[in-house]
């Protein structure tokens, strides 16, 4: 699995939505729509929390959870 593929996939998916989508990794918060932010943060072995707020949050959460799972990345989608 290529981390680069995961990063591009996650960012492209996030950018389809209007909602604010933030990934928490340890004490860092990253805008998932920023590929650069993901590159510096998305490394294997971590577990992440995904915070989604906005009008299309439900759809965004479902889509991003699927992308994380596809790339074997652990994510907890915060309700």
TrEMBL record:
One Pfam match: PTS-HPr
Domain of life of the source: Bacteria
Signal sequence annotation: none
Domain HPr: 10-69
Name of the protein: HPr family phosphocarrier protein
Species of the source: Paenibacillus montanisoli
């Amino acid at each position: 699995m290529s981390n680069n593929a995961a990063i591009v996939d996650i960012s492209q998916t996030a950018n389809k939505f209007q909602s604010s989508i933030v990934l928490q990794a340890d004490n860092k918060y990253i805008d998932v729509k920023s590929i650069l932010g993901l590159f510096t943060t998305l490394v294997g072995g971590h577990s992440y929390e995904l915070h989604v707020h906005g009008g299309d949050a439900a759809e965004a959460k479902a889509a991003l959870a699927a992308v994380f799972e596809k790339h074997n990345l652990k994510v907890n989608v915060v309700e």
